[in-house]
Amino acid sequence: MRATLMYRAGDVRVENVPDSRIKHPTDALVRITASCICGSDLHPYHSMTAADGPARMGHELIGVVEEVGPDVAMLARGDLVVSPFAVSDNVCEFCRENLQTSCSHHEADFWDGIFDEGGQAEAIRVPLADGTLVKLPVTPDSALVPSLLTLADVLGTGYHAARAAGVTPGQNVTVIGDGAVGLMAVLSAKRLGAEQIVLMGRHTDRTDLGREFGVTDVVAERGEEGIARVRELTGGQGSHAVLEAVGHMPAYEQALGVVRPGGVISRVGVPQYEEAPIGFAGLFRHNIRLAGGPAPVRAYVEELLPDILDGTIEPGRVFDATTDLEGVPAGYKDMDDRTSLKVLIKP
Amino acid sequence: MRATLMYRAGDVRVENVPDSRIKHPTDALVRITASCICGSDLHPYHSMTAADGPARMGHELIGVVEEVGPDVAMLARGDLVVSPFAVSDNVCEFCRENLQTSCSHHEADFWDGIFDEGGQAEAIRVPLADGTLVKLPVTPDSALVPSLLTLADVLGTGYHAARAAGVTPGQNVTVIGDGAVGLMAVLSAKRLGAEQIVLMGRHTDRTDLGREFGVTDVVAERGEEGIARVRELTGGQGSHAVLEAVGHMPAYEQALGVVRPGGVISRVGVPQYEEAPIGFAGLFRHNIRLAGGPAPVRAYVEELLPDILDGTIEPGRVFDATTDLEGVPAGYKDMDDRTSLKVLIKP
């Protein structure tokens, strides 16, 4: 079968690999019908060394169950499923607390690719299938597929940013980053009742889409100028919640600059730093809280799915390009060049 | 009148100073009947340079209102009052949200001493008296005075640690630090229903008092050994909430080591660092939250006062020594030597 492999930074190839197959009794074999490239795939695209490659890529997918292991009880051949990016048993202590990204099962984990396989491929073995996969009540050719695919990562991750921040009706929220996750954070803040949503971003096509998702103010400036502009827009006080969807230090510094006393910085951009200012001046003086982490997107599927099915939200609008598997390497390049926001893959 | 001045690290003197008097129409002049030395007073006691001295000391006090400015409406001569360590108008946007330590009034502020005066003295001018001071329904010689005095700082600060952490019934909580604030955090976690309370501390007399306040397990070990012990006591997972009442980096590192996935580190020890690990490994991987800051103790008075008046809680037990004003320098030394936990001053 065909699958995407990253050999090193900038070197993505689609090649023949051994067919995926069931290995453990809790596995499902899924024939992939829709997948995509994630903003987080660009991190290794920038920095991966040859020693770490080749790596199978992709962690967002919808597909048809082709076969299940003998211990899989809730899925059957022919089911259309979405696979959250984190493998989880969905029954352990942490999963029951809706923290599936900290699932304590020894097979549970996440990162680029689902273990030894990836979603940018024709098929995939999904571990802990009963816990991980969620059945979808549509057919693989449904027009809702792009929106449903966002349940695998970007919608749930943006929603996690807003939920971890505890966004409540009437609040003012600043979203840092106009990538797909930032735009999903906008949609999520709006869904939770935010009154003012400031989007810090510089790509007009993206911030325009942000406005359709609920953005009230766009701030293109960065650094001190951007901070001053957000403060001006928020009555001088800053935002109750800052949703940080980038992960680089300047984004954290922006967040510190625009958060209101007693407010919260909620991070879903994977931090590309370890140490950061959190002392008296940084967070402590005004009781600023810090929240967020890898999104337990599995926890949010039941809540968000109905809104997609009835058209209340259209998160699939973040996809602005579609390709087949052979076009994946070009898709990486387009996302890296910012000519594409997010690329949908139809294997 | 007599007042306490710190000239530099280790040099505390009680001297004659000009009598306190009303300066602004919202001031009250308070004759101090009970005051104390705070663990945070030991920071300048260790590090203050002569260039920063002499400074008036003390920010916790109970006293009798002797005179009020013309704009003070809610207090009258003869009222017994407690003064939270932060001056606030209690009516601004932030005060109304119970964040009095971020009060937006230009006269509001806090730190060692209330502006140019201090509580370790015979009298004090308290700014924004209507907002800051709270009337007490007892006489100055009440046996409840030591407990009521803790409303000025340590009880409210310990309670803030637990409240900012969102401690709920049944949780397991680790408190780092067996000083007065740590012990108040124990009492507070117990009050909020924590089932298991682990106290990390090495002073047996203090941890014994901690047990009376609700500690279920004492861990005297520090560093990796202390972390392993707490994890062992908490089923391998760590604590839902870690209340950090020290402020030094090793305490933060202990907190990182013992917090449970999805848990929260709530800091009320003033950070003696600015940068700290909060990246993927530190906080992000397991959605660890960070909370806390200078406690808005004014916000908690109405809630905690009844429990003191009816004897449900006895926070005043943290005072293990009493002195008059002339004994204050020796009190600093005793607290620094750890021969006293907290020194009560009867001017």
TrEMBL record, chains A, B:
Pfam family, one: ADH_N
Domain named Alcohol dehydrogenase-like C-terminal: residues: 180-292
Assigned keywords, A-Z: Metal-binding, Oxidoreductase, Zinc
Chain ranges of the Alcohol dehydrogenase-like N-terminal domain: 25-137
InterPro entries hit by this protein: ADH-like_C (IPR013149), ADH-like_N (IPR013154), ADH_Zn_CS (IPR002328), GroES-like_sf (IPR011032), NAD(P)-bd_dom_sf (IPR036291)
GO MF, any single term: oxidoreductase activity
Cofactor: Zn(2+)
Superkingdom in the source lineage: Bacteria
Family the entry assigns: Belongs to the zinc-containing alcohol dehydrogenase family.
Designated name of the protein: IMP dehydrogenase
Organism encoding this protein: Nocardiopsis sinuspersici
Taxonomic path: Bacteria, Bacillati, Actinomycetota, Actinomycetes, Streptosporangiales
